[in-house]
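> tool_call: predict_assembly(chains=four)
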Amino acid sequence: MKKSTIKDVAREANVSIATVSRVLNDTGKGYSDKTKQHVMQTIERMGYFPNAIARGLINNESGTIGVLFPAVSGMVSAELLHGIEAAAQAFGKSVIVCNTLSDPDKTEHYLQLLYEKQVEGVIFANERLTSDFQKMVKQMAVPFVTLAGTSEIEGIPEVKVNDQQASYDATQYLIKHGHSQLAMVSGPPHDSIAGTPRIEGFKHALADANSPCKATQISWNQAFNFEDGKHAFRSIMAHHPETTAIFAASDEMAAGVISEAHAQGICIPNDLSIIGYDNTKLAMMTVPALTTVSQEFDTMGYRAAELLCHSIMGKDIKSLNLKHKIIERESVSKH
Amino acid sequence: MKKSTIKDVAREANVSIATVSRVLNDTGKGYSDKTKQHVMQTIERMGYFPNAIARGLINNESGTIGVLFPAVSGMVSAELLHGIEAAAQAFGKSVIVCNTLSDPDKTEHYLQLLYEKQVEGVIFANERLTSDFQKMVKQMAVPFVTLAGTSEIEGIPEVKVNDQQASYDATQYLIKHGHSQLAMVSGPPHDSIAGTPRIEGFKHALADANSPCKATQISWNQAFNFEDGKHAFRSIMAHHPETTAIFAASDEMAAGVISEAHAQGICIPNDLSIIGYDNTKLAMMTVPALTTVSQEFDTMGYRAAELLCHSIMGKDIKSLNLKHKIIERESVSKH
DNA sequence: CCTTATAGAGTAAACGTTTACTTTATTTTA
DNA sequence: TAAAATAAAGTAAACGTTTACTCTATAAGG
């Protein structure tokens, strides 16, 4: 059963395809009420739906945006994507997802693909948009937005929280609650998203509290995940058994710390306080529930896609810093 | 700077567009080596990329598949999607994601959208494909696959684990380790995916162990999440304080049980054993780490998309039951 | 050396829409 | 009541490709 086209409808309804098209697009001109009814009925009866590809070709718009993630596994990406999709939907756009695995070749390949598919804009999520892609980005000539990431390329708006400030606040929160022996667990310090800025925030807060940060107070690892949190915490305890409070660069790492602390018989928050980062669902599930810095990923995703759509419609847009806040739960002792 | 088209390339290279097209598609016929080189160079120099929309129109293929999720937030969807994208990529297809929010109207709307976008296949994930959509599905005339869900519509392959069997095994695992006072926490019992089959598996295992299941041994709630797990567990403890082992219909619920147990001073696994379901990342992060039934979501997603792509290529395909297994961690005491 | 096959390359139709332009019929205006 | 304005509907070009078909020149065959 072949799909019916506008031609089929026109033939069935005894009108020209132009008329069908006009009715379809509800132009309000070019047909009488009677024909409109008639055409609509015919369309209904035949189960006709317009071919978006043909439409796209002539209107030069695909109704599609592309989203690049290192990997859409994990809570963070999932929530970002959820927000993105919601906004896109509100603007009548569809979302194509791509997993770059942080591989530049794959990324380049996906950009080409999206280019060929005539996407109207691209969201670059959770990763640094390096100047390697400058040429491609320029050539594509559609708006880009980075989401929970940064851009080396000039003129690309970023949607994110101010990581350094948020980390500063998290650290200060620990200090304010009476802690002076702090440590931090992090992923790679040169990670320009979750690494450097959070570490800087931590250091600054310490400096401002007159207890400059020693290198050994920061323990880092390959990634920002659970296992790395465990390992990092072990090494903290090896070097600084006096530590009473920890800032973890992600909730997953914090969960690792909690788990390892439990294994070592360290009681949270009595012996050790910990604050996380992200406020993923995980944070409320740990025992004790994790006090953490909230990034509202769903909202972030929404705002990024919204921004992108505005840009597609020709408005000019600028970077957006979303507010962070500290979600107080039970993992930090209050003196 | 307008995008260059095949015409521009043809003009620049002093050949016809047919020649360019042939070179582009590497047909092997219709051009000499010399022209090929020349055309390729021109393409490179101009930074030309073919317009997939125009291609799609004439070839009648969009290179796109659609994926419908109730919501892509949450670990499970994220991993499924990750697998889907990987397989799609391997088959040269792009993935459009849609969040139906389990709303039939939205679902219908998305199906229409995907139809108009000429997707070559659809994955219906994490949800029951009800006969409400039968008409639309038939009309779309492209392959469908359900993923981690079931279909009321005839002839649609399903990719999932055998939930009932897996639940049976999980329950039996508890029994085998010496537990006789079992209870289950679940979401809505009429949920045809995570509800009914898992409950049935639980009941059967109990029956086969000669301790038929009383209604109060199963506590259920609105959803399958953390809070619901907590509540369900409270009500279990109210009715059956003698319970020594719990089967949770999801890891999140299990986390809720763990959290609530901790609050009540119940020690896991000494006082109470618990087995979860899903083996999301969460399972290894709880304290103690959660013994659980593994569904390999990433693989499931991959296999579903793979199956779909095979179907698109005309092979005929059939439902796939992925193997489950029990991942032993620390939340079940062994006697 | 003439016929026939063959390879290289061009022409134009087709894919399913939208839309500017045109035609025809009807209504308004004077 | 004729001219002008308006509304309804049709015609055909265009969007950027692919591809069947055609044409030309060169190579092969006798």
